[in-house]
C-alpha cells in the first residue's frame, strides 16, 4: 500500500512537468500579448512594462523562473489584474467553483445512479426506453444551449430565479447553473450505470441471491450496486476534477466568478500567469482525483490489487 | 406490474419541485404582466423617492485595476468617475464645471493655468484634499515606474513627456503647489482642450499616505481612499464592484443614491436577460438583434444618443495594392452606401460618416466632396478611378478585409464586400481574428490590406481623432505619413486662437479625406436600457454618467 502511494506520487511529477511545459509553450505561441491594446504604447514604455514582467528575457529563462517560483508555491502576479496575484485569484475563484461543482456532482451522481439502476431493472421496457431517450437527449444538448433556455424560462419569463451572477451568495443564484451543469452528467452517469448494472444483474451471484428469494431492493443495494459502480467511479474522477474547477461554459453564461470564468477571460486577455496557474491547479486536481479513484476501486472490488 | 421503487421516484420528483418552488418564492421580485407594466412610478407626486436607494448597472468587461493611473478603458473609467473628483468636473449634460477646484485662471499666452482648490474638499478618511495631492497624483501618473499605458494623454504638461520616457526627474514636472489650495500647471504649448484632459482619470489626485502605505495594493477595497461622491466597498473579480456613499464628500447631502453596484458582464445578450429579469437598472449596451423587440415592447426604457466615436475601415497604405494610390482608396470609399449600413444593419440611430471627425462643438464637420453626390454619380466616378488604377472586370482587384471576431463586424464586412463587388467588381475575402491576434496583425502592417477599426475620443475635442494619423503616432496602423498633415496638426497644437485652430484642423481633415487612408463608415451612438424609476439621466456626447446625479424613484 505504501509503495503504491510513493509510486503514484513519483509518477505524478513528470506528468505535471510535461503539463506545465506544454501549457507554457502553447500560450506563448498564441499570437498577441498581454499588453496589446487598441491604444499602442510608446516603445520606451512598452520595454519597461515587458521588463517588469520579465517578458524581455528568453523563453527558457522565463520558464525556469516560472518553475522556480512554482516550487515555492508562487504562481506569480496576474498580468491582467494589476494588483492581484494568481494565488489570490485561484483562492477566490476556486471556492465558488467548488461549491457549484460539488452541488452539481452530488445531484448528478444521485439522479444518474438512480435512473440508471431503475432503467436496468426494467430493461427493454417502456420506462427503460423513456429514461434512456431522455439521457440521450441530455447528452446531446450542449449546455450552452440548455443554460440560456433555462434562463429564458425561469428568469426572464417566470421571474422565479436570478438570470446570472452570484448575488448576495444566496442559493437561488446557484439553482440554474447547478441544474445546467448537472443535467448532462446525470444523463451520462445514468447510461454508464445502466450498462454495468445489466451486466452485474446477469452474473451468477445475483442469480444465487434471487434464488434465495431476497427482495429486489436488497439485491440491488446489498449486492449489485457496488460492483456496478466501478465504471461510474472511473468516470467520476476526471469528471469531478473538471466540474469543481469550474465549468468554463456555464460560469461564463451565468457570469459566475469561478475558475472557469477566470480561465476564459485569462486566455482572452493573454494573462499568461493566470492561465498557467489554473492549468497547473487543474492538472494537480485531476491527478489527485485519479488517485482517489484507484483507492475507491479497491474498496468496490477486492479483486483489484493496488 | 408497477416498479417497486416507483413511489420512491415520485417522492423525489415531488421534493425537487418543492425545492424549486421554495427558491422561487424567496425571490422578492414583483409580479407583472409584461416588461413595461411597472405600475405607478414615483408615488402620487411622481417624484417620490424610493426607500431603498440602490442602483445596479452593467459595466462591460472587468476593469484591470481601479488605480486611476493604470486603468484603461471605458469600464474602469465609469467606476472611477464615481470614486474621484478631478479638478474639473462634468455636468450631467457633459459641460465642464468646477470640481475639486472652485475656479481657475489662465494666463494670456495660454501656457499657465492656476487652480484654486476648495477648502471643504475632503478625502474619504476626512483628510483635506490639497494641491500637493494633485502634484503627487500627476507625478505618479507620469513616473515611468508606474507603468501607466495612458500617460501620453498628459504630455501637454511641461516636461511630462521627458519624465514619462525616463529622461528627466519627476520633480521637474510643470505641476506645482503654490500653497495648500493653489495649484499651478504649466504647459508646453497652449492646449485648448486642456481643461477637458483634467477630467480624465490620468489627472486624478491620490491620497499620498495611503498609496505609500499599501503600495500597489492601495486601490483595493478597504485600502482605497477617494475624494469623489462614492467609496469602494467591495470588489469580487469577474463579478461585481460595489460603491457606497462617501460621507466626507463635500456635496454628500445632495447625493441621493446610497449604493451602486457595477456588474462585469461582457455579453450584451446576458446583460439584456438580466435587465429583463429585473436584476439590472441600467445597462451599458444592448444586443443589436433585440432592437426590434426593445422598440416594440419597452421603447421608453431605450436611450440612444450620439457618441464621440468613429467606426471605420482602414487601408494599409505601406503595401500594395493601396500604397501610393489615393484614387483607388477613394473609389472604394465612395461606393459604400453608408445609409444602407446605418438603416439596415446597425439600426440604432448611428449617423452615416463621410468625414473622419464626429460632430464636436466648435468644429465645423468636414465631408468628402462626393458626400453630396447621388449613388449613381459616385459609382461612375469610382469606376473611372478604379480603371485609372489599372483594374477592370477582366482584371479585378482582390483584397482581404480583416476584422475582429464579432457578428456585427462580420455583417458589416459582408455588406461592404458585396457593395464593392456589385459596383466595381472587386473580389473581397473576409478574414476574422480573435481580438488580440487581430490587434497584432493590424499593428504589424505586414499582412493587412483593409482592416476594421473604431476610435473613441478620449476627450471632447477634434484633436483626439486628428492625431491618430500623425506620423509620430503609435496608433497609425495605416502606414500613412504626410508632412503637410503633420505640420497642420503641429500648428493647431500651438494655436491659441480657437477659430484659427479649428481652421487648421479642418484643413488637415480635408487633406486626410482626399488622401483616404481610411473609410469612415458611421459615427457611434451610445445605447442604454434604463428602468423608468431611475431619474436624472441625461444624454451626453462622451456618454459619462455620474451616479451622484441620479436617483431611484418609488416603485
At a glance:
The complex is a heterodimer of chains A (306) and B (555). Helix content of chain A is 75%, strand content 0%.
What quaternary form is this? heterodimer
Helix and strand run of chain A: HHHHHHHHHHHHH
Please tell me what the overall shape of chain A is: flat
Low-pLDDT residue spans of chain B = 1-14, 20-34
Total of DSSP H or I helical runs spanning 4+ residues of chain A: 13
Binned, the helix content of chain A reads over 70%
| Spans where pLDDT lies below 50 across 5 or more residues of chain A | none
> What is the overall pLDDT average of chain B?
89
| Chains forming the largest contact | A-B, 62 and 61 residues
Beta-strand fraction estimate of chain A? under 5%
Give a count of the beta strands of chain A, DSSP E runs of length 2 or more. Answer: 0
Give the CA-CA distance, first to last residue of chain B. 57 Å
Helical fraction of chain B: 25-40%
Provide the residue-averaged pLDDT of chain A: 87
With strands numbered from the N-terminus, the spatial order across the biggest sheet of chain B is 12-16-11-15-13-14
Tell me the Rg of chain A in angstroms: 24 Å
What is the beta-strand fraction of chain B?
15-25%
- Tally of individual helices of chain B: 16
Structural class of chain B: alpha+beta
Broad structural category of chain A: mainly alpha
Largest sheet of chain A at a glance?
none
Description of the molecule:
The complex is a heterodimer of chains A (306) and B (555). With 306 residues, chain A is mainly α. Chain A has helices at residues 2-29, 43-52, 59-71, 86-121, 126-140, 143-157, 172-201, 204-211, 216-228, 230-244, 248-253, 259-269, 272-300. Chain A is flat, with a radius of gyration of 24 Å. Helices cover 30% and strands 19% of the residues of chain B. Chain B has helices at residues 6-26, 74-83, 131-142, 160-164, 194-197, 208-214, 268-276, 291-297, 326-334, 338-346, 375-388, 407-424, 435-444, 463-466, 483-494, 498-515; strands at 54-58, 88-90, 96-98, 101-106, 112-117, 175-179, 182-186, 230-236, 240-245, 259-263, 302-315, 351-352, 398-404, 427-433, 450-456, 518-529, 534-535, 551-552. Chains A and B meet through helix 2, helix 4, helix 6 and helix 12 of A and helix 1, helix 7 and helix 13 of B.
Amino acid at each position: 500500500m505504501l509503495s503504491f502511494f510513493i509510486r503514484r506520487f513519483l509518477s505524478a511529477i513528470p506528468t505535471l512537468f510535461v503539463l506545465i511545459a506544454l501549457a507554457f509553450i502553447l500560450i506563448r505561441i498564441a499570437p498577441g500579448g498581454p499588453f496589446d491594446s487598441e491604444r499602442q504604447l510608446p516603445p520606451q514604455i512598452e520595454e519597461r512594462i515587458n521588463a517588469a514582467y520579465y517578458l524581455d528575457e528568453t523563453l527558457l529563462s522565463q520558464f525556469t523562473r516560472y518553475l522556480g517560483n512554482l516550487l515555492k508555491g508562487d504562481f506569480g502576479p496576474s498580468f491582467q489584474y494589476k494588483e492581484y496575484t494568481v494565488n489570490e485569484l485561484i483562492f477566490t475563484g476556486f471556492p465558488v467553483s467548488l461549491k457549484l461543482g460539488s452541488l452539481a456532482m452530488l445531484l448528478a451522481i444521485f439522479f444518474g445512479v438512480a435512473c440508471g439502476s431503475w432503467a436496468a431493472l426494467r430493461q427493454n421496457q417502456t420506462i427503460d426506453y423513456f429514461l434512456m431517450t431522455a439521457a440521450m437527449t441530455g447528452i446531446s444538448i450542449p449546455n450552452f444551449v440548455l443554460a440560456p433556455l433555462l434562463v429564458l424560462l425561469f428568469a426572464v419569463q417566470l421571474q422565479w430565479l436570478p438570470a446570472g451572477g452570484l448575488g448576495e451568495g444566496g442559493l437561488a443564484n446557484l439553482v440554474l447553473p447547478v441544474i445546467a451543469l448537472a443535467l448532462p452528467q446525470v444523463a451520462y452517469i445514468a447510461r454508464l450505470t445502466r450498462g454495468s448494472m445489466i451486466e452485474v444483474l446477469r452474473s451468477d451471484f445475483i442469480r444465487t441471491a434471487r434464488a434465495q428469494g431476497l427482495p429486489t431492493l436488497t439485491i440491488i443495494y446489498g449486492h449489485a450496486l457496488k460492483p456496478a459502480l466501478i465504471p461510474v467511479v472511473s468516470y467520476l474522477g476526471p469528471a469531478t476534477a473538471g466540474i469543481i474547477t469550474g465549468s468554463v461554459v456555464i460560469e461564463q453564461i451565468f457570469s459566475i466568478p469561478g475558475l472557469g470564468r477566470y480561465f476564459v477571460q485569462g486566455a482572452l486577455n493573454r494573462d499568461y500567469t493566470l492561465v498557467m496557474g489554473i492549468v497547473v491547479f487543474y492538472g494537480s486536481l485531476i491527478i489527485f482525483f485519479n488517485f482517489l479513484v484507484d483507492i475507491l476501486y479497491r474498496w468496490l472490488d477486492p479483486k483489484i490489487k493496488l | 406490474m408497477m416498479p417497486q421503487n416507483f413511489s420512491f421516484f415520485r417522492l423525489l420528483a415531488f421534493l425537487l419541485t418543492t425545492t424549486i418552488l421554495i427558491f422561487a418564492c424567496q425571490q422578492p421580485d414583483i409580479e407583472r404582466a409584461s416588461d413595461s407594466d411597472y405600475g405607478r412610478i414615483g408615488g402620487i407626486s411622481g417624484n417620490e423617492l424610493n426607500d431603498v436607494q440602490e442602483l445596479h448597472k452593467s459595466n462591460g468587461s472587468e476593469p484591470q485595476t481601479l488605480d486611476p493611473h493604470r486603468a484603461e478603458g471605458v469600464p474602469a473609467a465609469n467606476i472611477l468617475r464615481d470614486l474621484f473628483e478631478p479638478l474639473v468636473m462634468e455636468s450631467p449634460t457633459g459641460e465642464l464645471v468646477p470640481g475639486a477646484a472652485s475656479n481657475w485662471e489662465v494666463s494670456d499666452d495660454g501656457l499657465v493655468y492656476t487652480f484654486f482648490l476648495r477648502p471643504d474638499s475632503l478625502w474619504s478618511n476626512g483628510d483635506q484634499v490639497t494641491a500637493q495631492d494633485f502634484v503627487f497624483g500627476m507625478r505618479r501618473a507620469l513616473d515611468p515606474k508606474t507603468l501607466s499605458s495612458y500617460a501620453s494623454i498628459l504630455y501637454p504638461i511641461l516636461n511630462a513627456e521627458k519624465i514619462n520616457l525616463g529622461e528627466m526627474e519627476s520633480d521637474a514636472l510643470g505641476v506645482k503647489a503654490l500653497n495648500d489650495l493653489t495649484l499651478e500647471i504649466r504647459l508646453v504649448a497652449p492646449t485648448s482642450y486642456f481643461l477637458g484632459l483634467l477630467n480624465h482619470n490620468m489627472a486624478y489626485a491620490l491620497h499620498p499616505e495611503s498609496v505609500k502605505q499599501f503600495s500597489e495594493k492601495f486601490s483595493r477595497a478597504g485600502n482605497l481612499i477617494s475624494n469623489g461622491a462614492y467609496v469602494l466597498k467591495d470588489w469580487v473579480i469577474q463579478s461585481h464592484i460595489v460603491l457606497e456613499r462617501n460621507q466626507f464628500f463635500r456635496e454628500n447631502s445632495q447625493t441621493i443614491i446610497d449604493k451602486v453596484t457595477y456588474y462585469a458582464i461582457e455579453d450584451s445578450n446576458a446583460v439584456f436577460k438580466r435587465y429583463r429579469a429585473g436584476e439590472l437598472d441600467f445597462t451599458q449596451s444592448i444586443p443589436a438583434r433585440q432592437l426590434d423587440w426593445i422598440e416594440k415592447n419597452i421603447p421608453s426604457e431605450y436611450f440612444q444618443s450620439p457618441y464621440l466615436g468613429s467606426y471605420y475601415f482602414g487601408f494599409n497604405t505601406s503595401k500594395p495594392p493601396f500604397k501610393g494610390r489615393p484614387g483607388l482608396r477613394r473609389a472604394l470609399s465612395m461606393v459604400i452606401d453608408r445609409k444602407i449600413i446605418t438603416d439596415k444593419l446597425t439600426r440604432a440611430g448611428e449617423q452615416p460618416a463621410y468625414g473622419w471627425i464626429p460632430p464636436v462643438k466648435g468644429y465645423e464637420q468636414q465631408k468628402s466632396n462626393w458626400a453630396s453626390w447621388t449613388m449613381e454619380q459616385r459609382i461612375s466616378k469610382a469606376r473611372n478611378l478604379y480603371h485609372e488604377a489599372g483594374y477592370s472586370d477582366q482584371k479585378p482587384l482582390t483584397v482581404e478585409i480583416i476584422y475582429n471576431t464579432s457578428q456585427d463586424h462580420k455583417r458589416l464586412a459582408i455588406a461592404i464586400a458585396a457593395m464593392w463587388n456589385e459596383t466595381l467588381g472587386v473580389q473581397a475575402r473576409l478574414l476574422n481574428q480573435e481580438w488580440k491576434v487581430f490587434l497584432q496583425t493590424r499593428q504589424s502592417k505586414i499582412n493587412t490590406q483593409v482592416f476594421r477599426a473604431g476610435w473613441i475620443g478620449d476627450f471632447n475635442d477634434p484633436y483626439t481623432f486628428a492625431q491618430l494619423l500623425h506620423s509620430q503616432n503609435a496608433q497609425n496602423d495605416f502606414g500613412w505619413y504626410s508632412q503637410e498633415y503633420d505640420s497642420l496638426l503641429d500648428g493647431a497644437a500651438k494655436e491659441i486662437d480657437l477659430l484659427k485652430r479649428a481652421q487648421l484642423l479642418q484643413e488637415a481633415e480635408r487633406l486626410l479625406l482626399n488622401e483616404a487612408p481610411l473609410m469612415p463608415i458611421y459615427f457611434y451612438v451610445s445605447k442604454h436600457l434604463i428602468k423608468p424609476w431611475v431619474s436624472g439621466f441625461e444624454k451626453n456626447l462622451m456618454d459619462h454618467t455620474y451616479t451622484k446625479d441620479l436617483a431611484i424613484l418609488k416603485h
